[in-house]
Amino acid sequence: MTARVVLGVSGGIAAYKACELLRRFTESGHDVTVVPTAAALEFVGAPTWAALSGKPVATDVWTDVHAVPHVHIGQHADVVVVAPATADVLARAAHGLADDLLANTLLTARCPVVFAPAMHTEMWEHPATQANVATLRKRGAVVVEPAEGRLTGADTGKGRLPDPAEIFELVLGVLERGADATQDLAGRKVVVSAGGTREYLDPVRFLGNRSSGLQGYALARAAAARGAHVTLVSANVSLPDPAGASVVRVETTEQLREAVVAATATADAVVMAAAPADFRPTAVSDAKIKKADDGSAPAIELEQNPDVLAEISHHRARSGSVVVGFAAETGDATGTVLDLGRAKLARKGCDLLVVNDVSGGAVFGSADNEAVILGADGTAVEVARGSKAALAHIIWDEVARRFAD
Ligand code: CTP
Fold this sequence. Notes:
Blueprint: E1 4-9, H1 15-27, E2 31-36, H2 38-43, H3 46-53, H4 69-75, E3 79-85, H5 87-95, H6 101-108, E4 113-117, H7 121-125, H8 127-138, E5 142-143, E6 147-150, E7 156-160, H9 164-177, E8 189-195, E9 199-200, E10 206-207, H10 214-225, E11 229-235, E12 245-250, H11 253-264, E13 269-272, E14 279-281, E15 302-304, H12 308-314, E16 322-329, H13 337-348, E17 352-357, E18 368-375, E19 380-387, H14 388-404
Parallel strand pairs: 1-2, 1-3, 3-4, 4-5, 8-11, 8-13, 11-12, 13-16, 16-17
Antiparallel strand pairs: 6-7, 9-10, 14-15, 17-18, 18-19
Helix pairs in contact: 1-3, 1-9, 4-6, 5-8, 9-10, 10-14
The protein binds cytidine-5'-triphosphate (CTP).
């Protein structure tokens, strides 16, 4: 799909990162019109935007007036992305000002609009900014939560522009959903766990598994694109942080349990896409375990880890919350994949179980997935082979339906 993308750039230091975002759009064949503010041009000049987009750029409404750009650009866009969005541009958009070309474009656009704010923590947290963000979200705009980390100076905090690659993925998600790009998870708090836990034998060795974290990250991205407040509990995943998600890094199942239980206290939905190790060594050696001269190997004694999914399902922190588990099954003498899935759904006590048939080959690390989503209410939604992003959206559709019930 080739889309007409309007990239609004406002005047923050992160404007340089918008160059990479622009490249990603143009290199994947999209038609991009860049609309920088005057302040953005103080950071990155018009020649850069013109060269990277292959089009002239204007910031005021007085250039090429015969083409009525202040109306035309917004009217003909498939998506408008403002990255970085400063506190000033959020304020002007929230109040409907029309004092430059970008503000006019935002008023005339009827397509999905995505704001990726970047500013200092104090400005982001100021009640005025928060009220403006709430107004824009209420009107259906996607306002991505800024990332935490190093800001312009030596200071750190919330306010960084998310990774441009992740903003790009989020916008593609919004474009794919088109008219359905509703903010149906706006105001919802969701928790997603992703990756595989590690259980240490000594400071350098661990028992782990092959979970790549791709499905969990796709779930976090999809939820953020639909307006949810996302906490991603990430176990040993080497993927960039999804735009808008607040990421808690863990290593072991016990740490994952702690992080998930803490985040669940206020969550509307929890999706356990992680593969927590079921067992851990009974003892962890403080020192690296050495090879014995006689050629013998140490015996490893294991004990069971807590079952996080069963715990949060059976002891709901909030009534009415929706809990989703995953199951990788092969089927055996006792039952088919779906029989085993149904039994697991009942045993774990969750509302939905996403069952992968892994008998034909692993889904680990693959970009694709197919599944059946079983509901505790007896439903079974078959999801044909497709991207993990597509499956993620179908899972959130099922969750959102249960919110509505
Ligand atoms: N899970 C969990 N805590 C664990 C293990 C698994 O919360 N210690 C969650 C996973 O995140 C996933 C689901 O449970 O959502 C997967 O369950 P699985 O490990 O397949 O179930 P088990 O009860 O261990 O069943 P099996 O004997 O088939 O492995």
